[in-house]
Amino acid sequence: MAEDVLSQSEIDSLLSAISTGEMDAEELKAEKEEKKVRVYDFKRALRFSKDQIRSLSRIHENFARLLTTYFSAQLRTYVSINVASVDQLPYEEFIRSIPSMTILNIFSVQPLESRILLEANPNIAYAMLDRVLGGHGESVNKVENLTEIETTLMSRLFEKALENYQEAWGSVVEIDPMLEEFEVNPQFLQMVSPNETVIVVSLNTTIGETSGMLNICIPHVVLEPIIPNLSVHYWMQQQQSKERDPEEYAALTKTVEKTKVDVRAILGESDMSIEEFLHLATDDVIQLNQSADEPMKLRVDNEDKFFIQPGKMKNKVAVQVLETVRGEDEGNE
């Protein structure tokens, strides 16, 4: 870091203060040599760099988009989910920050060690449950009195959501999320030691008129084996490795070649009213929008692709391709 540069007036003032005795040069020297100590809280160890936090944020932004689509389909109502924050803090601090009675989904992420926690605010959880049971998405907080049916419905809803979590992590590591426990009291839950650093991803969630938070707690021990995969360098390598494989390209080409499309030879087109159409009779003549000496068009899946001319081949009606139809963008190149 560059040192501060004094202006000429500041230098004059400093020399004046030393010469008059207002300031002692030895004291200044001693103060400069004194070691500067920065306070470090070992209970709040920062184990993830800003680069790694940004990577985790990207992964969970993708998860939020997938989750929005999933819940919108399941609940058949307006759902909006987006990442509010990604922080690292001690596990004990996270447990203290969530409600004393809430919805806790604990799931494993094989082959990674330990488990991940998905906490759903009771307002959101009950709005989801109300929609599943045919209601308007109203929220009634009665977590401590969950019935067996309500517990089953709620756990199944979040269990299916884990498929989206697997997809969101696909570019970094292949995981197999599996719901293991469903709890309502965080005091009975001890996933890791209180001082263990965890990543907490908070998702702003809106379901109909109800808003709340979904919190994902990921212990450091889960991410430790894949921390190198969370760097920008790894992401760049992943992009470079996605270059087209010749064998895959050949297989894809072969598959596409077998695809069937709708192909029609267009003699010409004409506009008429419904009344004129209804009164068409034998020997009526319909005037088309092109003359007989102009080339016809070959239309593939409702898009004009080639200019053609009609003819015969082996006593069957056929067309001969003359040239490719150029679009407006191609013609301007």
UniProtKB/TrEMBL annotation:
Its main location: other. SUPFAM superfamilies: CheC-like, Surface presentation of antigens (SPOA). It is a peripheral membrane protein. GO terms for cellular component: bacterial-type flagellum basal body; plasma membrane. The keyword Cell membrane applies. Keywords: Bacterial flagellum, Cell membrane, Cell projection, Chemotaxis, Cilium, Flagellar rotation, Flagellum, Membrane. Belongs to the FliM family. This is Flagellar motor switch protein FliM. The lineage of its organism: Bacteria, Bacillati, Bacillota, Bacilli, Bacillales.
